[in-house]
Each structure stands twice: as C-alpha cells, then as structure tokens.
Write a structure and sequence with these properties.
The protein is built from 13 helices and 15 strands. A hairpin with a 2-residue loop joins strand 1 (about 25-30) and strand 2 (about 35). The chain has helices at about 5-10, 45-50, 60-70, 80-95, 110-125, 140-145, 180-195, 220-230, 285-290, 305-320, 320-340, 370-385, 410-425; strands at about 25-30, 35, 40-45, 100-105, 125-130, 160-165, 200-205, 235-240, 265-270, 280-285, 345-355, 355-360, 385, 390, 400. Helices cover about 35% and strands about 15% of the residues. It has a seven-stranded mixed beta sheet with strand order 4-10-9-8-7-5-6, with helices on both faces. The chain has a four-stranded mixed beta sheet with strand order 1-2-3-13.
C-alpha cells in the first residue's frame, strides 16, 4: 500500500470509491494523455468521468484561467460578473430553449438539485418521475430520484419518486420488441402510471444514462413522452451532465434525439463545459427560472475563474468542431470495438454514440452481468497504458469509454488495440 493510499484511508470516507487494486495518483496531463506519480503514461479514455472534454492542459484554457486569476478569482453572485454574463448568454443561445435563463452551480449534482427545486415550486408538487437505472448525483434530493441501487444509499427523500420504463433498450420486459413497439408500450406505461397518482412536477431523464452504463432508449421516446406530459402540464428536465456539448457526435445536446416536440423545459449541465473546473448549471424558460419567491445567491457558482475557463473551453470546442470530431472518430472507434469483440461470448453489446461508448460484459452462456471481468479488464487496460471507466445497473459490468473530444484516429486505434488485448487476456 502506498503512503498516499494509507493516508487517504485514514482521513477520507470508506464509501469514497477508488479504481484499481493499487489506486492511481495522476499528477499531470497533456492532450489525451496523463501521467501518474511513478512517471507511467496513460491514454485517457475516461477524462475524469467525462469532464476533460477538450484536452488536458489545453493552452487556450490555461491562458484564460491564468489571466483571470491575475485579475480576480472570485466575488460571488452578489456583484455583477462579466464572465458569468458572457457565458450565460452563449449557453442560453445554444440551448434551444426559448427565452432561456441560466443559473450556474458548482456541479451536476447541484444543477439537478436546483432543477428539482424549480420544477416542484413551479408545479406545486413534490412528486417526480424518473427513469429506472438512472443516476442524477449524490445530494439528498438527487439520491432520492436515482434509479440505481448501487448509488442510492438511502430510501429517505424530500420527494416522492415514481420510476418509468424506457431508459434501457436492451434489458427489461420490453427488450424483445421493435423500437416502435418499445416506444408505444413505454408511453402506455407512463400514461397508466399517471392515472394512479397525483400530477407530478416533472420527468427527469438522462438522454443516455451515464453511471447506468451508457444505455439509452430508441430515438424519439422522450418526444413521445412529451405529448403525454403536456396533457398534464408536467415539465421535462433533460439531465445533460454527461451528454451535453456535442459528446454524442450526432447532436450538440442529447435531448435533440428526442426533440420532435420541442426542447425540454429545463436542461441541466456540468462536467465537460468546465474541462475540469467546477461548473454546473441549469437552463430554463424564464417563467420557470423566475418562479422562486425568495432570495437566493450562489457563493461559488459562476465565479470568475471558472467562467473564464468555460468561455475558453466552449470557444475551442465550437471553433475546432469537436462535435464533428466526436462523430467521425467515435464512429470509427465503435466499429473497431464491435469487430474486436465479435467472437467474444462474454461481450453482450457495444453501444453508444460519438465518444460515449459502452461495452457490456456478461458471463458466457448467460445473460448475467460479469462485474468481476469488468474490474479485471480495467486492471489489464491500465497495465498496458489505457484508462477507462465502468458502470451499469444491477451490477457494474459495462466498460465506459469517453475520451476527450479532440481524440485523434491514431489514438482511437491505439486505445482500441489495448482494450482488445485486455478483453482477450481476461476471457
């Protein structure tokens, strides 16, 4: 056990999860690579849990943060803040939500917390619809709506949560149906559920479930849900903490795969926009955002140094068409991985969009998850210089692949080769 690991265990909570049998200390990074305290170099296919969106140590962001730090780091929302206004204007413009207002937080958890506060206040209801296999953060209210037992340490909640079918296409009672039939029965289930409860405040849903193992419904499910929600006045909250900013390649926001009936009422975001800086936020129509009748502030949400990073990061993303790169390179990577595992009886599925890819592992000859092999693959990949993540619903058996969106074709091929070797060595 390393000295740092021993110190970690002495002062930090037992439930604070760490990857690897010998936990890794990452000391610095550049581009799509990071180095550990021993000097070993790794190709980073997880980006601090989908957070390093553009690249490690990107000069444009480093310069913006350094220059802002030389002026002022922080003042709180009690004062006018030019970088916060400028980033809010850009986010509102690209959100797709009419007359949008933006509130900045420090994390995705806090963003979802704020969205729930807005929705329940606006609708005068503490009932919330959420998806099975979902994850929305670690706060008391976010845990209360999380549909994933592995990340839900308590059943206590300030909210009444009702769980809806549809977030996982390949498992569950509707898995064998066609996409159109799947949507129809999920909509019927939603309509039936609403007939047995008081009208909920909102449906909150990740367009692609992150911690759940990068699972998703057929395109158009949430658009079909929206028709039913509108009949009851129920709001739609799209949790874009992991899917936003072009990561899926095909769309800038994950909800756009379900946008036939218009944008969500509320969108939450975090992770990638800060490229490692603590930025989260909520976008909502003005009448929803302005529904609170008490004062509020944020001490650290929207602080100048994080806003400077967000502005530089968003500019770089758009100017270099990283959404297009995610679509092109991610498409190649998905096909490369599917070819690599075609003869592996322990791989149930390679799924995903853009640079958000899941590889689900099962015990050969069954449909049961194989979390032990998932852990073994993580170890083997690390030994060969590749960092990936893992997730899943009932068991953590899906490998999660989410590199920075500037990933090159050569790096995608290198990572795929390492992962293929890791899978082969653990069969």
């Amino acid at each position: 056990m390393s000295d740092l690991y021993a110190r970690h265990r002495n002062v930090l909570p037992d439930w604070l999860a760490l990857y690897y049998e010998e936990p890794l200390e990452i000391t610095h990074g550049e581009g799509r690579h990071v180095w550990d305290a021993r000097g070993a170099k790794y190709l980073d296919f997880f980006g601090g849990i989908l957070t390093t969106m553009t690249a490690h140590a990107l000069p444009e962001i480093t310069k913006a943060v350094s220059e802002q730090a030389g002026r002022i780091v922080h003042s709180s929302t009690l004062y006018l803040n030019r970088p916060m206004v400028e980033l809010a204007e850009r986010v509102a413009h690209i959100s797709g939500i009419p007359d949008a207002r933006v509130f900045f937080t420090t994390s995705g958890t806090e963003a979802n917390d704020t969205a729930l506060l807005l929705a329940t206040t606006y609708r005068r209801s503490n009932t919330v619809l959420a998806m099975r296999n979902s994850y929305h953060g670690r706060s008391f209210s976010a845990v209360g709506i999380t549909g994933n037992r592995g990340w839900s340490p308590t059943s206590l909640s300030p909210l009444q949560t009702l769980y809806v079918h549809g977030g996982v296409r390949g498992r569950g009672p509707f898995a064998d149906l066609s996409d159109a039939e799947f949507i129809d029965v999920c909509v019927a289930d939603l309509r039936d559920l609403l007939g047995h409860t008081r009208p909920p405040a909102a449906l909150i849903a990740e367009p692609i479930q992150g911690v759940g193992g990068f699972t998703s419904p057929p395109d158009g499910l949430y658009a079909a849900f929206r028709e039913v929600l509108n009949e009851y006045g129920i709001l739609w909250i799209a949790d874009e903490v992991q899917t936003g900013w072009g990561r899926t390649g095909e769309h800038f926001w994950g909800w756009q795969a379900h946008g036939q009936n218009g944008p969500p009422d509320i969108v939450t975001f975090a992770k990638g926009i800060g490229n490692g800086m603590s930025i989260g936020g909520v976008i909502a129509r003005s009448e929803i955002m302005n529904c609170l009748d008490a004062n509020s502030i944020s001490t650290f949400g929207g602080t100048q140094i994080t806003m400077a990073a967000g502005l530089a990061n968003l500019s770089y993303l758009l100017e270099h068409d990283l959404q297009g790169n995610a679509r092109r390179v991610g498409g190649l990577l998905i096909e490369r991985l599917r070819a690599a595992v075609a003869q592996d009886p322990g791989v149930r599925e390679v799924r995903g969009r853009g640079l958000m890819i899941g590889v689900e592992l099962i015990r050969p000859g069954t449909d049961r998850a194989d979390p032990d092999r998932a852990s073994a693959v993580l170890e083997a990949a690390r030994a060969d210089g590749l960092l990936i993540g893992k997730g899943g619903g009932h068991d953590t058996s899906a490998l999660r692949i989410a590199p920075p969106l500037s990933l090159t074709v050569a790096e995608a091929e290198e990572g795929a080769a390492i992962l293929e070797s890791a899978l082969r060595s653990t069969r």
